[in-house]
Amino acid sequence: MIVYLQLAACKGKTLLIIADAADTVARIKALAYHTLAAEDVHAEAFRVYYKGKSLPEFLTLEDCGLSNTRDHVVELVPVQSLAQAPLQSLSFADNEHAAKLLQQEMHWFSRRARLLHAYRILLFFCIFTSLASLVSFLWYIPMISVLVAGIELVNVPQFSDLGGFTVQMLQSSIAHMDRAKYFNFLWAIAIAAMIALLGLDFGDDCDIVCEEDTYLTLGTYGLLALLFLGTSIVSWWSSFNFRRRAGDLLEPYLLSITNINSRYFAPPGTSRRTPLPTIDELSSRDTLAFVQRIHAFLNESASNCLLLCQLQSVIRLLEVAGGTGQASELAILCLERMLRYLSTHPTLLEHGVVERIQSHLASNPIQAEQPGLTCLVHLCATDQACQHVLKAGTLESLRDIAKGLLPKSNNSLATITSALMRANHYEATSEDVEDCVFLVRCVLQSAPNGDCYNALACLNDLLELHLDEINDATLGRLIISWQALVETSDVEVAILAAQACASFCHHEHGLQVMMQYQMLDSMVSLLRPFLSVDEGMLVAQPFYACVRRLDMEGGLDLDEGAQASLTALRSMIAERLEVADLEGEDMDVMDTSS
C-alpha cells in the first residue's frame, strides 16, 4: 500500500511511503525523520494520527486499521514538548544528523540504564548487609547480593523517550516480568526458611551439622538453586523478548540514510525478510495500477517532499515489472523523477542504488531506451554522484550502457560524458580516457549542436589533463571530427571546435601527432573562417605563436607545405590586425570630426 504522510507543521509537504501492513508505526516515523533531515527541515517531535486517533509506535499498521488493499492518508502532528530536555536543543542541520541524534539518544539511554542498575546493586547490597549484620550471617552477603542484583538487572525501565516518542514494554513482556516477580516472592520465602532452619541448627550449639539435618540443609539449598534457575530463565526470557521487540522499534532509528531500506526487522515470530517484500505481493495483483499511482503522485506533487528512502522500493518495483511493458516504462519514469531530485542531494545516493539501476538498464536496453538515458543523466549530474559510481566499480558498466544506447538516441549523451570526465580528472586510466573520447567522437558526429558544445567543452578539459594518455590514432580521428564541425551553422560550436584544436596543438605531443597525420593544413583551414571575429583571433594567435616557437626550437620538422600553411596563417592574422587598426583609426577620425 501507499501511505501519504501529511505534515501539519509544514503545509504543502507530503511524504510518500511504500509500506506493508506488517510494518510498525515506529518504522514509518523513522523514515519520516530521515527524510525531513535530508530536506533540511527542522523535525520537531511528532506523533502519527490516523482518522483523529494517535497510533502507538509498537503496533503494526494492520493493528491500527491500515490494510494493503487501499492507500491511506495519515497526519504527523508535532508534540509540544519532549520528555528529555537536553535533546530539544538538537536540530536536523545536515543529512546525517538524524542517525547521529538517535545514536546519541540511545547512548544516553544505555548509560542511564547502567547507572540505574548500579544504584540498585548498591542499594540491595546495603540492605542485605544490614540484615545480615543483624542476624550475624555475614558469609551469605556476597551470594545474596549477587542473586538479588542479577534478578533486578532484568527490571529495565518500562519506557524511554527516544526522539519524541515512547518505546513501551509490550504486554507479553510485562506478563513475563510478572511471572519473574512471583518467582522472586517464592525465592524470598525459601531464603527465609533456609535461614530459619540453619538458625535452629546452630541454636542447638551443634558445631557440626547433624546427619539428620544434612539432607534438610541440602534440600533447602537445592530448592534455592532451582528457584534461582527458574527465575533466571524467566527473567532472561523476559529480557530477550523485550530486547527483540524494542529492537523492532529502535532498529530503523539507528540506521543511517544509506542503508535504512537494506536492513529491516520482521515482526516477531518470522525470520528477517528481504527489503520491502510487499512489492512482489502488490505486483502479483496489479502491477500497472500500483506503478500508475506512484507515477501520478510524483508528477502531480513535484513540490512535495519525496521520501528518498523509498528509492530502493521503486527500483525493486522496476525489476519486478521488467516484463510488463507499460508498468516497466512507468517505473523507470518514477526512477528518473527521484534521481532528478537525487542529483541535487548526491550525499543520499547509495552504491547499491547505482549498481541496481545500471544492471536493470543494461538488461532492458529496449524498454529503457529514452528514460534510461535520462536516468543516466541524473545519475551523473554531479561530481559527488560520479564519485559514487567510481567507488562502486560500475564506471565500465555505465560506459557500456551509454555505448549500447548510442545508436538509438544521442539526447543528453554529452552530459553523461561530461560527468564521466569530471569524475575522472584525477583518477582516470588510459582506458577510461579512450572510452570517454570515443563517446565524445560519437556526440560530435551525430548529436545536436547543443550536445556538441557540451562535449567539446568537456573535451578541452580532458585534453589538458590527459593528452599523453590518448592514443595517436584516436587524436588523429578527433582532428578529423573537429574539421567536420567547421561546416556547422552554429558559430559557437565551430569556434569551440577551433579552440579545442588550438588547445590540443599547444602541447608538443599534439603538434607531433598533427604533423604525423599531416593535419596542419586542415588546422589552418579550420581557423580561417573565424579570423573575422574576436574569438577566432583569440584562438589563432596563440596557436601560431606556439607552432612558430616549437619550429624555431627544432621541435618540429615542417615540410614546405606546412611552412606555407604557417605563412598563410601569419598573413591572415596580420591582415586581421591591420583591419582592426584601421577600424580604430577610422573611429578616431570620426570622433575628431564630431
TrEMBL record:
Keywords: Membrane, Transmembrane, Transmembrane helix
Positions of the Ubiquitin-like domain: 3-68
Nucleotidyltransferase among keywords: no
Keyword Transmembrane on entry: yes
Record-linked SUPFAM superfamilies: ARM repeat, Ubiquitin-like
Stretches that traverse the bilayer: 121-141, 182-203, 215-237
InterPro entries: ARM-type_fold, Ubiquitin-like_dom, Ubiquitin-like_domsf
Top-level taxon of the source organism: Eukaryota
The protein's name in its UniProt record: Ubiquitin-like domain-containing protein
